[in-house]
């Protein structure tokens, strides 16, 4: 089998998932290596004309701000969510102090809880006319409609 080519029919979904995972992982490694080899002096954060605010100095979010943000967000759910969106919204008032604390501590420490670093990523064919048996014809898309 040619490198990056899938069999026409692969009933072994675990094997197929591994092939996609390895393919996209290798693409990321290649991009990272390319960035590391790039002349970093031209990057925005090394550019004297570029300014930014560091998160070490920010006003923590209030419960009201988080509530407004949650209520204005699209009401979708993901298979990784521990509870459904409707249950979450039903108990939002009770959960808000904890959620606000997690968000503020995450921003203050510059870390994100490992549990929040998971996503469902589905390979999507770039164009319908492309051969679905060739891995490079896919993009890794986070399922924005469900997650």
TrEMBL record:
Protein name according to UniProt:
Reverse transcriptase domain-containing protein
- Write down the species: Patella caerulea
Q: What is the lineage of its organism?
A: Eukaryota, Metazoa, Spiralia, Lophotrochozoa, Mollusca
